[in-house]
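Q: How would the structure tokens look for this protein?
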Amino acid sequence: MDLDFYKLQTAGNDLILINFTGKLFPSDHELREMSRKICRRDYGIGSNGLIAMTSEGIDKIKASFLTPSGEFADVVNDALMCLARYIFDSGFSGKDDFSVELNGRLHKVGVIDSTFFRISLGYPLNSEGLPLIERPEEDYLVNLSSGGKKIPSTIIQLGKPGVVIYTENRSFPKLKEIADELIIPDKLSEDMQVIFATVNSRDDLEVFIRKSRNDDFLSSCAIAAVASVVNGFSNRDTAVHHKQSEMFFQWMQPTNEVFITSSAEYLFTGSFYYET
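A: Here is the predicted structure in token form.
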């Protein structure tokens, strides 16, 4: 079976999108097998995830997003941004704001222009899983151990847990070394994303992420931005840079909801022979 696909990327994360509109949509089992094969970088197309979508008409779009290991992803913001670009360009949404069902949950997409879209990332939680509310009198920094040194950091949950460390060192190998040292001594869980942030100004933040496989980059960037706000380093609306990509972060008051405005771009398209 030949599968026509699009490869897109957002915030440096590359994903494969296949449109099954007008065809039989694969079962969950078939999607799992398909993702494992297609996402492999040795003999597949190679990507950090597979988006499979179908449409029954304008604003009647359903999609599934799976990781390269064949699991349905818990955090889907990168996939939603890539899907939004394709849906808009292909005319499945008209040209206004629209909704899409992704991994069983309805998501609203705001259309800024032909390439930029605004999505909600939800509501941030603190390290104890309680709603995070900015309080100027509160200290949000905790010390983690690395190489015998104490490193101030902030732990936040936004769809996933992340620990944010502020640094002026932009050497990725050095940052990875620091992150690897943190995981064991402080017993951080393996699903804890270690995120490094450099504050260029109150409205400009640069983000570096420890690992990329199966990660959601938009979530990691938003976690870094939320941490910067509560620590008094950044405004509630700020530009965030990651892997030469720029996005616009907003943490709304009084609702406490986090939004990201960003874009996705096409890398290439083609056809992949999938042996059923």
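The mean pLDDT is 89.

Residues 125 and 132 are 5 Å apart (CA to CA).

Upvote if useful.
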